[in-house]
Amino acid sequence: MNLIVAVDKNWGIGKDNKMMWNIPEDMKFFREKTIGHVVVMGRKTMESFPGGQPLKDRVNVVLSRQKGYRLSGALAMHTDEEIKALLEKFDPAEVFVVGGAQVYQQFLPYCSTAYVTKVDQAFDADTYFPNLDELPGWELIEEGEERTCSGLKYRFTKYELVE
């Protein structure tokens, strides 16, 4: 499986269930990587999307502890067993974990590739992603050129699990 995330200098990913920056090129990168694939996310991440609606042209899998949670255009999963049974139907290379923090933590052990947009600034985050530079087995294998948007410097990177 893959994961895709944007982080600040301290691996912060959000505050108050919102992204802390707006980088259109990063949104385009996210779209290009995930379109036509399976995206796995938590309920709060789904609700943070425009209109709280599923992403178009993707299979949206939403994890929620709320047993009655349903959303048109998305597959709602409530237990680990349901999730595992569903994901076994897909090629792992076609699955992208897209957040939030608890879902990243839950699925990181099953991921082998991480697409990380690194924003070169520290923000006042309340939600973090594990620092892949410090996790055993993860290796930075691609680091794109530095780019700038609205004064923010950032770069696209790719990590792989090499254990």
Distance between the termini: 15 Å
Structural class: alpha/beta
Count the DSSP helices: 4
User: How is the main sheet built?
Assistant: 9 strands, mixed
Bin the helical content.
Answer: 10-25%
Task: Describe the protein's architecture and organization.
The protein is α/β, with parallel strands linked by helices. The chain is 20% helix and 34% strand. It contains four helices and eleven strands. A hairpin with a 2-residue loop joins strand 10 (147-149) and strand 11. The chain starts with a strand and ends with a strand. The relative contact order is 0.26.
Topology:
Blueprint: E1 2-7, E2 12-14, H1 24-34, E3 38-42, H2 43-48, E4 59-63, E5 74-77, H3 80-87, E6 95-99, H4 101-107, E7 113-119, E8 127-128, E9 138-143, E10 147-149, E11 152-161
Parallel strand pairs: 1-6, 1-7, 3-4, 3-6, 4-5
Antiparallel strand pairs: 2-8, 7-11, 9-11, 10-11
Short description:
The chain has a single domain, classed as Dihydrofolate Reductase, subunit A, CATH 3.40.430. The protein has 4 helices and 11 strands; from the N terminus they run ββαβαββαβαβββββ.
Supply database-style keywords.
nine-stranded mixed β-sheet; Dihydrofolate Reductase, subunit A; 163 residues; 4 helices; alpha/beta; globular; two-stranded antiparallel sheet
